[in-house]
Write a structure and sequence with these properties.
Layout lengths: L4 E4 L9 H14 L6 H8 L4 H12 L5 H18 L6 H4 L7 E5 L3 H10 L3 H4 L3 E3 L11 H9 L7 E5 L2 H9 L3 E5 L8 H9 L4 E3 L5 H14 L1
Helix pairs in contact: 1-4
């Protein structure tokens, strides 16, 4: 069936923030006495909430993260966002052309979602339909956040289309029984290992140009009507 709601991830889909976020995360890890490569960070942490990231660091890397570590990282990240963050190319033009309800469902905190959308000029297009992993019990790759967003927007999961950039996000959409397009147009998406993991997560479609999205959605509806 044709989608009736488009659910966007935020980082790497609406705002080109993933490279900046990983840079700040690696700085925090170094401050905590650890050493993790960029590829490893993308493999283990991309698309996941900070709560989950901290759990993985403690469990798999033996690296406890304190509140002071988190505060220092957040200050640095907000500085990077303020000075360097840009919207994904084409997204400002695409959103008004969708012709469908849309919302944001992100692993970031609500304050961070608002901040990144504000500094990139997207907040007015997206508010008030902002959903954060802090609103649910389990973050991605669990389906909770996407199901919460769909319920809040009064859409059936099977009538939702998710736009994601991470394997964790694709897995969450699949678990929610939603269709999902993988977006590879962010600055971080040229990483070959990340591209391979994203493809192996088996999204319904992979695309790199946000300006294509309205036609891709229209084509999805046409294929459903023909089947």
């Amino acid at each position: 069936m044709a989608p009736e709601l488009v659910i966007f991830d935020c980082d790497g889909v609406l705002v080109d923030s993933e490279a900046l976020s990983v840079s700040a995360l690696l700085g925090m890890i170094a401050l905590a006495g650890g050493s993790i490569g960029e590829d490893t960070a993308y493999e283990h942490f991309l698309g996941k909430s900070m709560k989950t990231v901290c759990e993985i660091l403690a469990r798999d890397f033996g690296l406890p993260i304190t509140d002071q570590h988190l505060t220092t990282m957040r200050v640095e990240l907000m500085r990077k966002f303020r000075e360097e963050l840009k919207p994904i190319a084409g997204v400002k033009e695409v959103l008004p052309r969708l012709g469908l309800p849309f919302c944001v469902a992100s692993s970031g905190t609500l304050d961070r979602i608002r901040y990144t959308l504000d500094v990139t000029g997207l907040l007015g297009l997206m508010e008030p339909h902002l959903f954060s992993a802090g609103m649910v019990a389990r973050g991605k790759p669990a389906p909770d956040l996407f199901l919460h967003a769909a319920a809040s927007m009064r859409a059936h999961p099977r009538k939702c289309l998710v736009i994601e950039d991470s394997p964790a996000g694709v897995a969450a959409a699949r678990a929610a029984d939603m269709r999902v397009f993988a977006f590879t147009g962010g600055a971080h998406a040229g990483n070959p290992a990340l591209k391979a993991r994203l493809a192996s997560s088996e999204p319904d479609f992979i695309f790199a140009d946000m300006l294509q999205l309205p036609d891709l959605i229209a084509g999805l509806g046409a294929r459903d009507r023909a089947s």
